[in-house]
């Protein structure tokens, strides 16, 4: 049995769509899981509860941790380390392999200008410190407790997701509503985005490749990075909208953060948007002979699946 913890999120859904190519014994775990494939087993659980984590993982050969907690520092500090410890313990007890779907917050400052699997842990934010802690917990369990695990990292998302994608929220949603696109901090620098269908497919591939374990993998992300302005221009062209946009510089985001909780949370992550942010997935691409979806094709597919253009 292959089990997805956090199965209702965008990544969990795409992962489930692809896991059916490897097994028809898939367990979907979340508070209110919904079937993706006809043969899926639904397992409602509160993953902040240690006992329920153990029950959810029992009998699993491979466990995928794709949980997305509320984007708030206090929630991350309370929930993430506890969940990671519980998942590691449950996987070891059940002799389950673990695939952790991760971001790159543990890599900070100018190290984001070229992110590889070898980039050093260098968090410059409190959220980044939490993610570094999670990765260290997992790497220690691999080394000291013989856990078989993978850290699968993605850049920021784009695709069929709204509340967790700056690109989709600031650009696509605003344009679809007839408003100006928006961007944070600096629209003149390049920024990589990972296409959600590629991430889901690649995570399933990793989980079902024995040789991939006990490594860090950057998930496939097209290498032809675009600046914020170029992203806006691409959406504008495909949607028949204006290329005009509103920029929120750092001081404005900081000020607005006193009134808008999300902006307060995003301010400490400004290093990801005020300089070049390049996510290098060449290791995955070469090993699996995988060609990431181009940004142009990804946007065409997104718009064809949205009822509002």
UniProtKB/TrEMBL annotation:
Entries under InterPro entries matching the protein: Epimerase_deHydtase, Lipid_A_modif_metabolic_enz, NAD(P)-bd_dom_sf
Q: Where is the NAD-dependent epimerase/dehydratase domain?
A: 4-218
Out of the domains of life, which is the source?
Bacteria
Record-given protein name: NAD-dependent epimerase/dehydratase family protein
